Amino acid sequence: MSITKKSFGANCLYFLGLLLVAATITLFGIAIVAGGFEGIVKLGGSCVIAIIIVFALLAIIHIYSVWIIKPSYKKFSKIREYFIVNSIILLTSLISCFVYKYFSPYAIPIATASLIVAMLLSQRLGIIVGVFTSSIVGVIAISTDAMLNGEISIINFGGILVGVISSVCATFLMHKGFNRLKVTLGSLIIGLCIMPIGVPFGFLDPNPTFLSVLRICGNIFFGSVIAVALETMLLPLYEAMFRIWTDYKLAEICSLNQPLLRELRAKAPGTFAHCLTVSTLAENCAIALGLNPFMARACAMYHDVGKMKNPQFFSENQTDGYNPHDDLIIDVSVKMITEHPQEGAQMLRDARMPDTVIRAALEHHGDSTLMFFYLKAKGLTEKNLNKDEYRYSNPKPSTKYSAIIMICDMCEATIRAKKPQSKEELEGIVYQIIQGRILDGQLSDCDISMKDLAKIKTSVCEAIPSLMHERIDYDKAKERR
After folding, report:
1. Tell me: domain 248-475, CATH 3.30.530, correct?
2. Where does residue 35 fall: left (phi above 0), alpha (psi -120 to 50 degrees), or beta otherwise?
3. Which of 49, 343, 385, 445 qualifies as a FRET site for 363, CA 20 to 30 Å off?
4. What is the model's pTM?
């Protein structure tokens, strides 16, 4: 009963916030379209009706996102999504009212709201936000014009229709493979494609001319330019304010110019090369599982950054043949090796990296055993050893991304060491690694299925040969000639 009361109270606060947003949009929107706050006084009770209509539209969007789509609650908190959606509707509506009043109804940048919501939350929610934001602007702008001027201009309805079409088209434009440039160019192309819609509305003018029709078509295109400009300006602000990692932002942190990756390349070049190989494997596995390949790549690129603290203690960085573990007791060696996941996770926290990337760095070894040092210690004594003393003391993978990094990390290291000579031998190694992780209980805390693991095995086996292929020795080939 207490949970129900709590849920009811929270929903009341949500709808109270929607009422506040509706009042803000309506009153400021009317003031903009009327040319001053005296317009609110002139409209009188009509303002209340407009607020109720706008509130109803906002409530429909909220209900749709909470009870119908539920697209992003696993990634974002409910309240964060609430603030994102309503703040962008408020901004877009007021800017659209300004453009409607002082420039043209056909240049209103409704697509801004659709693009930002689609990029940050959900494509379907982006479409709904675009359609309803157009309706909100129509209710405020057209009704204010009608009340103050005593007539409704059918021509102005064309601007609202263009806003709906441009926002829906721009949202469908969103694609995981698109970068910022492609989205910008695509939005401008949409503006060009929908320009002909202005022709029939241009002829509705009492005295239509070629220039008046051309002006409407030009305004439609200019509306796309405004929408893209606003999206380009606002999206980075939303990414930073709400700490949302879009594909664009993930691609940026995977750039080799990132400070942590530059430092890793300088201090631990062998580990850096290992991370690059694992990133390719992880990306392929993520695509096979329907996960975000940008996130998988980021997890792989940073999973071993903790090795920078003591790079010489890891074999991939021992280029001069000297192994410092030969001069250390086993307990110290185990400590030096097992510390790198925690150290890496702390480095990533300090760099404000995504939580998923931090978890992958911390969890990619789970609490698995360092078999090399366990067997080495076992060979030096006849006593029974406690295997737990030779384990990592980290959480097991809790996400599919962490599980992918764990498997790809082991596969890359093992295959590089064993150098399988046939496809069957390669498949056998990958199968044994995955089965070993399952039997050791390392994958028990994440929702990965046997079907997912089969896809990971296939992806790794397909990618490894091209990543670790042999090259022709051209000098020997010349000698044979």
Report:
1. no
2. left
3. 385
4. 0.81
